[in-house]
Amino acid sequence: MAQKVELRPAALEGQGRARRGKGDGKAGRPAHAYLLVVGEDSPRGFRLPIVFSGLDGLQRRKLALQVTRAEISAKGKAVGLPEYVEVDVGDRQSGDKVTVADLGLENLEIQIARDEVLAVVTLVEYFGLVS
Questions:
Q1: What angle do CA 1, 38, 101 make, to 5 degrees?
Q2: I want to staple 54 with a disulfide (CB 3.0 to 4.6 A). Which of 10, 81, 88, 117 is the partner?
Q3: What's the CA gap between 29 and 31, in Å, rounded?
């Protein structure tokens, strides 16, 4: 998971994001990490993970969420970018679609169409029979 860091050295001031690299196989330790430092007003492109909350509400009604896209690409000022985008699907009905327009990210430039389907609510089926 990405962690925000703030740098204050005299020659290098700005905000950045740190991510762990792939592990070295020893107790899950990272083999390397990288840090991207950008100015506050610099437009940057980032991949934003989509977190779907309210899944327990769907399960109680024997519904499931079929996710077609778990992240989106967006551009915006580095300081204003969220770590992830959360969508509550707990009150959705069978057949409802979650689109980019449902994310409410008007201040960011999204790299895919606003009507792009991110997830669909479906009935849970067991052995081909709707329960």
A1: 60
A2: 88
A3: 6
Q: Residue 124 and residue 14: Cα distance in Å, rounded?
A: 48
For the chain, which residues make up each domain, given as ranges? 1-38, 40-130
pLDDT in tens, 96-130: 999 999 988 877 888 889 899 999 999 987 655 55
Predicted TM-score (pTM) of the model is 0.64
Q: Hey, how many other C-beta atoms are within 10 angstroms of the C-beta on 36?
A: 15
Structure-derived torsion over alpha carbons of residues 105, 109, 114, 116, reported in degrees to the nearest 10? -100
Enumerate the β-bridge partners of residue 3: 18
Structure token pair of residue 52: 């779907």
Helix or strand run (H / E) with residue 74: strand 71-77
* Positive/negative CA dihedral, 75, 86, 118, 71: positive
Superfamily of domain 40-130: Ribosomal protein L25, C-terminal domain (2.170.120.20)
